[in-house]
Write a structure and sequence with these properties.
Distance between the termini: 48 Å
Shape: rod-shaped
Radius of gyration: 14 Å
Order of helices and strands: H
Oligomer: single chain
Largest sheet: none
Structural class: mainly alpha
Number of strands: 0
């Protein structure tokens, strides 16, 4: 049960980081073009 919670938290943080990275890329592309 604990490992499942840990996996869920890690997955959420990773997806959050990827989402933030995607937003940064879109912002940079929008500013330059």
């Amino acid at each position: 049960m604990f490992l499942l919670q840990l996996f869920y938290v890690l997955r959420e943080s990773v997806s959050g980081l990827l989402g933030a990275f995607q937003v940064d890329v879109v912002l940079i592309v929008w500013v330059f073009f």
